[in-house]
């Protein structure tokens, strides 16, 4: 596959089959679930029910939903601290994720990990990493494990635009290319790394960062779930075909501050409003669903009601589940392989 730049909204002739009506509705529901979950988490943080750091994924939903739609249960996922959307897209339960945010026993890490440290072996979700870029060598190792054990799986290794200048990323690219490891490096370029605009911090195009290792890269409109799905289909086919790693640079945007404690003074309200009103991934798909008569306004509202119910139940669970017992302080420090 040659290195090439994908244009926004372009149809890919080599894409397998276009998504069915049910699949489109599924993407809509999944993106809405992440949006409503994150809105609720933001509210609960404001009420003091969630402590520590909390990084919301609002605006970026199309990336994980489109990627996950192209993958299957053999595949593993790893990402940074902006991880709630990835967990929900992997099929982890909203209740367990929300209860981890509130630091309760019912959480995925029994209330001891919080927002940035959650895992599910069952769903092959390997965190949740607070050190910028730390997940890249680990994701590469997961890809090695997939290849070594011949389980047919691949790793989707997500990293931010703020991680791409780290040495460990290139050490990982080198190994992955050399050993043809089954890994998709998904760069979520949401334009900012904390308060630093991507253009101020990184030279050149991010999708070309694997060129020296012969790793092909694609730039994708990460605000359009259909573009993401089409690019992900190609990437999955390439990687499963034994060709080694590939890079997908998702051009996306986070609507909220870096974390809940960021007033986001490094960008204008107009910039955020423009993205929200013109490029919102959920509105984009809604238009498609309405235009193609796949669903009417009423049906879409019903999906929203369902999703809100799931999130309300998750929030109730997360506030009723007890706090961890102090005796748990010394458990789960080392886990048997
Ligand atoms: C090694 C390291 N350096 C610095 C930090 C502080 N830090 C936390 S998030 C962040 C920005 C990362 O931005 P990006 O990779 O673009 O991800 P995004 O927050 O946009 O999802 C920084 C510098 C850290 N956690 N780890
Ligand atoms: Mg970023």
UniProtKB/TrEMBL annotation:
Query: Which cofactors does it use?
Result: thiamine diphosphate
Give the GO terms filed under biological process for this record. pyruvate decarboxylation to acetyl-CoA
Q: According to the UniProt record, where is the region Disordered?
A: 1-21
Domain of life per record: Bacteria
- What is a single Pfam family found in this protein's UniProt entry? E1_dh
Q: Which UniProt keywords apply?
A: Oxidoreductase, Pyruvate, Thiamine pyrophosphate
Residue ranges that the Swiss-Prot or TrEMBL entry lists as coiled coil: none
- Enzyme class label: oxidoreductase
Annotated InterPro entries? DH_E1, PDH_E1_Alpha_Subunit, Pyrv_DH_E1_asu_subgrp-y, THDP-binding
Catalysed conversion reaction: N(6)-[(R)-lipoyl]-L-lysyl-[protein] + pyruvate + H(+) = N(6)-[(R)-S(8)-acetyldihydrolipoyl]-L-lysyl-[protein] + CO2
Record flagged with keyword Cell wall biogenesis/degradation: no
Instruction: Name all Dehydrogenase E1 component domain ranges.
Output: 30-326
Give the enzyme's EC designation.
1.2.4.1
Cite the GO molecular-function annotations of the record: pyruvate dehydrogenase (acetyl-transferring) activity
SUPFAM superfamilies annotated for this entry? Thiamin diphosphate-binding fold (THDP-binding) (SSF52518)
Please describe the quaternary structure of this protein: Heterodimer of an alpha and a beta chain.
Concerning NCBIfam families, the annotation shows: PDH_E1_alph_y
PANTHER family found in the cross-reference section: PYRUVATE DEHYDROGENASE E1 COMPONENT SUBUNIT ALPHA, PYRUVATE DEHYDROGENASE E1 COMPONENT, ALPHA SUBUNIT BACTERIAL AND ORGANELLAR
Free-text function comment from the UniProt entry: The pyruvate dehydrogenase complex catalyzes the overall conversion of pyruvate to acetyl-CoA and CO(2). It contains multiple copies of three enzymatic components: pyruvate dehydrogenase (E1), dihydrolipoamide acetyltransferase (E2) and lipoamide dehydrogenase (E3).
Name it: Pyruvate dehydrogenase E1 component subunit alpha
What is the source species? Aerophototrophica crusticola
Q: Species lineage, top-down?
A: Bacteria, Pseudomonadati, Pseudomonadota, Alphaproteobacteria, Rhodospirillales
Gene name tied to this protein: pdhA
């Amino acid at each position: 596959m040659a290195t090439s730049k994908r244009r926004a909204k372009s149809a890919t002739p080599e894409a397998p089959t276009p998504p069915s009506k049910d699949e489109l509705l599924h993407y809509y529901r999944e993106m809405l679930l992440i949006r409503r979950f994150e809105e609720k988490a933001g509210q609960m943080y404001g009420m003091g029910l969630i402590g520590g750091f909390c990084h919301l994924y609002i605006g970026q939903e199309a990336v994980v939903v489109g990627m996950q739609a192209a993958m299957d249960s053999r595949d593993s996922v790893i990402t940074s601290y902006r991880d709630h959307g990835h967990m929900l897209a992997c099929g982890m339960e909203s209740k367990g994720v929300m209860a981890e945010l509130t630091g309760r026993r019912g959480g995925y890490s029994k209330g001891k990990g919080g927002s940035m440290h959650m895992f599910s072996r069952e769903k092959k979700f390997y965190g949740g990493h607070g050190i910028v870029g730390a997940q890249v060598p680990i994701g590469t190792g997961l890809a090695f494990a997939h290849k070594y054990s011949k389980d047919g799986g691949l790793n989707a290794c997500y990293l931010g635009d703020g991680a791409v200048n780290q040495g460990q990323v290139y050490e990982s690219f080198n190994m992955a290319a050399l050993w043809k490891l089954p890994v998709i490096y998904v760069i979520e370029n949401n334009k900012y790394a904390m308060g630093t605009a991507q253009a101020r911090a990184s030279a050149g195009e991010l999708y070309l960062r694997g060129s020296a290792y012969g790793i092909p890269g694609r730039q994708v409109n990460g605000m359009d779930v259909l573009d993401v799905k089409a690019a992900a289909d190609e990437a999955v086919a390439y990687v499963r075909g034994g060709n080694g790693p590939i890079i997908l640079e998702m051009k996306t945007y986070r609507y909220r501050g870096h974390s809940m404690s960021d007033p986001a003074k490094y960008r204008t309200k107009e910039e955020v409003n423009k993205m929200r009103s013109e490029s919102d991934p959920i509105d984009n798909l809604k238009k498609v669903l309405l235009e193609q008569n796949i669903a009417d306004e009423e049906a879409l509202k019903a999906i929203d009601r369902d999703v809100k119910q799931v999130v309300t139940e998750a929030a109730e669970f997360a506030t009723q589940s007890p706090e961890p017992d102090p005796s748990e302080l010394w458990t789960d420090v080392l886990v048997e392989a």
